[in-house]
UniProtKB/TrEMBL annotation:
This is Aldehyde oxidase. One of its GO terms (molecular function) is iron ion binding. It comes from Pseudooceanicola lipolyticus. Residues 6-263 form the Aldehyde oxidase/xanthine dehydrogenase second molybdopterin binding domain. It comes from the Bacteria.
């Protein structure tokens, strides 16, 4: 920056850091999820998963957790979802709760179904399962064969089934504001590198490094996707998105980031297993949005010496701050 200033160039580079935390699930309120699963006489394994996937990968992660608990390959699980007639209530897709809450319900359902199978042949917990056409082979020191066609089917056609519910252990706040509003918290730290054109007021993010404690990354690729999407949203909030009645009432004038606005994002996955999460996993959603805008504003401050306290940091706002026209 000193060299650029000496040479008369208006572009300054800055680095900003911000941290954040977020509770997973509803605040001090019951928010259970229920998951159902069954095995048909033909050996088909079916997961009734009602958690709505809005792009975050809940269908994949919840199926992975169930398959792990049951002890079968994930590609052997047939998923039924998005139909309130045939799937139990898995709660709303909000509050970064689906991996945590519905994932736990899926884990419990898979474990319950596994216990039924092992009980049929008095096999140990560590026994391996191989579910094939019309049979289950349970292997420990000796193989046990369960002929599924000899078991009575229920009204839905399942010879073995389980339905389990999980509700996070929270406590309402007392009159002094003390309690346990969340059973689980996620933590994050973001570093942003920006270039600020002091003549034009434009801010161009150059790089993001985002570290997130996710407990256990059930699916690392989906974790990275969540981080990238959250940073895109946070960047829009910090630099672009401004509602002006009568002016920015459509997506032509109300600016949101495109792929061309997002800089390279390096995701650092921190895995500190959570006591309540399925296999130690935590939710990851809103967590990413929280430190993104503060990291960008800190980077602007580092680049040009001016602190902005309101978003978005549009070119006009940055220019006004550089001229000392914005109130603290």
């Amino acid at each position: 920056n000193a060299a650029a200033q000496a040479a008369g160039r208006p572009v300054r580079r800055g680095v900003g850091l911000a941290a954040g935390w977020y509770g997973c699930g509803n605040t001090s309120l019951p928010n259970p999820s229920t998951i159902k699963a069954g095995i048909r006489a033909d050996g088909g394994v079916v997961l009734h998963q009602g958690a709505v996937d809005i792009g975050q990968g809940a269908n994949t992660v919840i199926t992975q957790i169930f398959a792990q608990a049951l002890g079968v390959p994930v590609d052997q699980v047939q998923r039924v979802g998005g139909d309130t007639d045939v799937t139990p209530d898995a709660g709303k897709t909000s509050a970064s709760r689906q991996t945590f809450v519905s994932g736990n319900a899926a884990r419990l359902a898979g474990a319950a179904l596994r216990r039924q199978i092992l009980h049929l042949c008095n096999a140990p917990e560590a026994a391996q399962l191989r579910i094939g056409a019309g049979e289950i082979i349970v292997g420990d020191e000796y193989d046990h064969r369960i002929e599924l066609g000899k078991l009575a089917a229920d009204a839905e056609g399942y010879v073995l089934s389980a339905c389990e519910t999980y509700d996070p252990p929270t406590k309402p706040l007392d009159r002094n504001g003390q309690g346990e509003p969340y059973a689980q918290f996620g933590y994050a730290a973001h570093l942003a590198v920006v270039e600020v054109d002091t003549a034009l007021g434009t801010v161009r993010p150059q790089r993001f490094v985002a570290a997130h404690d996710v407990g256990k990354a059930i699916n690392p690729i989906l974790v990275e996707g969540q981080v990238q999407g959250g940073i895109a949203q946070g960047l829009g909030m910090a630099l672009m998105e401004e509602f002006i009645p009568g002016r920015t009432e459509n997506l032509h004038d109300y600016l949101i980031p495109t792929s061309g606005d997002i800089p390279p994002v390096e995701t650092i996955i921190v895995e500190v297993p959570d006591a309540h999460g399925p296999y130690g996993a935590k939710g990851l959603g809103e967590h990413v949005l929280i430190p993104t805008a503060p990291a960008l504003l800190n980077a602007i401050r580092n680049a040009c010496g001016r602190r902005l306290y309101r978003v978005p940091a549009t070119p006009a706002a940055v220019r006004a701050a550089l001229r000392g026209e914005l109130d603290d």
